[in-house]
Known about the structure:
The structure holds two protein chains of two kinds.
Chain A: H1 2-16, H2 18-36, H3 51-65, H4 71-93, H5 101-121, H6 126-135, E1 145-153, H7 156-167, E2 184-189, H8 190-197, H9 199-205, E3 214-219, E4 224-233, H10 240-269
Antiparallel strand pairs in A: 1-2, 1-4, 3-4
Helix pairs in contact in A: 5-10, 6-10, 8-9
Chain B: H1 2-22, H2 27-39, E1 51-57, H3 63-67, H4 74-81, E2 86-87, E3 93-94, E4 102-105, H5 114-120, H6 129-140, H7 142-158, H8 163-166, H9 168-189, E5 196-198, E6 200-203, E7 214-218, H10 222-225, H11 238-252, E8 256-260, H12 283-292, E9 295-300, E10 303-304, H13 346-360, E11 368-371, E12 404-406, E13 409-414, E14 423-426, H14 433-441, E15 445-448, E16 454-460, H15 472-479, E17 480-482, E18 486-488, E19 495-501, E20 509-519, E21 525-534, E22 569-575, E23 584-593, E24 596-597, H16 599-607, H17 613-617, E25 620-621, E26 624-627, E27 630-633
Amino acid sequence: xxxxxxxxxxxxxxxxxxxxxxxxxxxxxxxxxxxxxxxxxxxxxxxxxxxxxxxxxxxxxxxxxxxxxxxxxxxxxxxxxxxxxxxxxxxxxxxxxxxxxxxxxxxxxxxxxxxxxxxxxxxxxxxxxxxxxxxxxxxxxxxxxxxxxxxxxxxxxxxxxxxxxxxxxxxxxxxxxxxxxxxxxxxxxxxxxxxxxxxxxxxxxxxxxxxxxxxxxxxxxxxxxxxxxxxxxxxxxxxxxxxxxxxxxxxxxxxxxxxxxxxxxxxxxxxxxxxxx
Amino acid sequence: xxxxxxxxxxxxxxxxxxxxxxxxxxxxxxxxxxxxxxxxxxxxxxxxxxxxxxxxxxxxxxxxxxxxxxxxxxxxxxxxxxxxxxxxxxxxxxxxxxxxxxxxxxxxxxxxxxxxxxxxxxxxxxxxxxxxxxxxxxxxxxxxxxxxxxxxxxxxxxxxxxxxxxxxxxxxxxxxxxxxxxxxxxxxxxxxxxxxxxxxxxxxxxxxxxxxxxxxxxxxxxxxxxxxxxxxxxxxxxxxxxxxxxxxxxxxxxxxxxxxxxxxxxxxxxxxxxxxxxxxxxxxxxxxxxxxxxxxxxxxxxxxxxxxxxxxxxxxxxxxxxxxxxxxxxxxxxxxxxxxxxxxxxxxxxxxxxxxxxxxxxxxxxxxxxxxxxxxxxxxxxxxxxxxxxxxxxxxxxxxxxxxxxxxxxxxxxxxxxxxxxxxxxxxxxxxxxxxxxxxxxxxxxxxxxxxxxxxxxxxxxxxxxxxxxxxxxxxxxxxxxxxxxxxxxxxxxxxxxxxxxxxxxxxxxxxxxxxxxxxxxxxxxxxxxxxxxxxxxxxxxxxxxxxxxxxxxxxxxxxxxxxxxxxxxxxxxxxxxxxxxxxxxxxxxxxxxxxxxxxxxxxxxxxxxxxxxxxxxxxxxxxxxxxxxxxxxxxxxxxxxxxxx
Lengths: 277, 646
């Protein structure tokens, strides 16, 4: 039992190993070209359709039609395949694959897919994900939260006058003009503040110092504001258990991209590229 | 060679088996987590802040979106909607200035994922000659791919789709796979209180090319929605959809609603006076329809369906987003006749509802209004300066505004006829699936053509104390009904509170109007638009009931405007001066922004080209919001059949 578990773990680790993916992808490519009978060499005019090839055609048919093909159908499938293969080789011979944007894009996509496909379904362990979170906590931090009071004015001069009376000790609540905006915001996230007060307003909250004093006038899409920023909490990272799903999504998306990039870089390094300016 | 081949195949088989064994998602686990997080969200006593979303977004699972070239799937759509930066299919970085609060991915139920499968299928296995031709066209070039989809849409509307795409049984297995993995993805991205993905699809009924499409939207998560499959629309009828909805609710205890859209392309069929089969409207059908379709999409990329100048000749703001779309049905296989307008535009439908109610005792068209995008790019954009097009063929480029855009054919409609799309504004008590769904059922929602203005609307009989100071909203909820609600006639004229706050990052407001529709003493349908609040009221005096135009600050050369005109907020309490006792009526609010550049003008400046004469004439517009109506009528009719969750 112990042993079996150990084996399974090893296998599981192996599955996650990019090198293994490359080996498998390489094997797949090799198998593909091997089976195709060197189609990349358009000079060859010998085609042998083996028993295995025919079995494969039959299997594909069966998967689609839910029954095996009749002999006549299999012959016709073989004929269709052969026709396509011959036209395909002749097309390569004529260089029709060159300069075709669709062929180019399609093949490039296939390469990308090969390098990334394993990451699509892989299930990372908690340990991997915890490490992932520890390495880039800022991505999972809660939004910055703001606590502030604000007064609204339709004109700048009015706001300036109000600031003067605030500085001489007047009560603040009666000073602003009426508008459907909350005079006080408690622990509001950046998104929430932007939704309510606009992007311009929120951006200014990051530059207000010191806290606890009335400042302004600050501009917004509505007009002018005096703001007393009481608290600005740069976001904390929630515990792992709460955000596991989110970490996993991020890990998956990033791993996919990384594998594509890594695979590309391997190939790219083998090329000498000159860009003439 | 054989040996190497054998080894290679063995390695592949072993690898695949290992993946299959150890990996794979567990949707039940995701569903349980979502339910837990949902339960932790605080639900307010009454709606505090409006939520913004799109209920109508297509991804590469849609048969036409894929054919048009989209290669972004549901995950990219969800990431984009919640505010992430993504790369569009054509390689342009895309991001929303402000995230959305919720998203309904509404891929076509017919042939869900089928074009993607057709595209990927080995050519030799495609038996049907038509499918084979489409397959080839899709691989040939983006233009050919669009032509293939245009043919496909026409075939769908003519009922001549190849059998392989029609037969629900062949489709079912494929559909089930895509649907269930899609539902698991939705749960994965669900952050109750912050971002809410909602399950749904588009039901694409289109007899003769007349658009009777609905978005079907669920209240539930994977545990319930995975027990159903998207209902096919082709060859169907509306009663069939309602039966499907009944059956889903009965079997799972879940809830589902339907949202009609693009009535403007239905050639008069969306809001008929009769039943779909031509027989007289029965009270039973009317009740069923009102219950199943509590909201209608009033505005989206393929035009605006609120009003048409033909129906509302005295409303100088009635023509918004009508040009091009008014010519005929969806594929333009049939031109529109004047007599068909009345069955297409929402204001007229609301009026017809009153008339049917008078005759049968039930109103089939008692619906609220929302906006959405109907974007086929996986990108839910509705801002004029960030428009990613109807489909991937018209993602930002220098040609799209002037081009003929008629699904591959060359008549009638042009790129500039597209609107940048709208959003749904929902007064929910919390950002969860259940609360958003319930707000839609009680129609406490409104439509905008993109800008995020905050609009409150209440009806009642005693709002005299309203001063728009701090706590007026809770007072209004206590003394009246919010948008979507109903008042019982008590002989006195109804009062309305309207409060419209501009989009904080957008344009100032020109005016707030109340649109009233009613039946007069002898059953004739009437309508009137009242200007009830506008900017600079002291200097812009109303002349013969009309407020003069607000002006225009748009600079055509730079696609810019200034907020030197208009007002940041408009509020009033308004009493209907023309009300007579016993009247059956509805009232809804239309908020107009000051004129701003449309996406076409932003394009022209960004890419440095000249708009055609027609496009230039339509390059500046007043964006707007439409609220759900408040109805008033005889007291005896009792409550709506569906006001609360079971």
